[in-house]
Amino acid sequence: MKTTPEHNARVANMKFFSVYPHYVTKVEKKGRTKEELHRVITWLTGFTDADIQDKIDRKVTFETFFEEAKLHPNAELIKGVICGYRIEEIDNELTRKVRYLDKLIDELARGRKMEKILRTV
Q: Source organism's superkingdom (predicted)?
């Protein structure tokens, strides 16, 4: 799917630390935990809890966040629609990675089993 250069620039420049509290609120409101959220982020990015906190403290953009990440080899198995975009059709690599994270968090909040979220079964 074609995203506009403006949209891609906006995604790249979003600050992880400003979006992170919304992730926490979203999953906790649905009965999931911050620990589960971190497990999902860790699976996708390879970051430890300390790494996640470092990204928050440094107020990194999503561009920097994903430059420093080691994306899980099964990330390509994340498919579906999020924020009105079909993930597998997003042509901008960074925007696709951010949508991967959004999709995983959405699945967590919707009560999907962790094994399915982490694409282990």
A: Bacteria
Strand partners, 15: 61
The rounded distance, in Å, linking the Cα atoms of 86 and 90 is: 7
Q: Angle CA(82)–CA(59)–CA(50) in degrees, nearest 5? A: 90
User: Hey, what domains does the chain have and what are their CATH numbers?
Assistant: 5-117 (1.10.8.290)
The Cα 13–Cα 32 span in angstroms is: 28
Cβ pair 5, 95 in contact under 8 A: no
First CA to last CA across the chain, in angstroms?
28
Q: Work out the average pLDDT over 45-59.
A: 98
pLDDT tens, residue by residue, 82-95: 988 899 999 999 99
Q: What is the DSSP code string of 39-67?
A: HHHHHHH---HHHHHHHHHHT-BHHHHHH
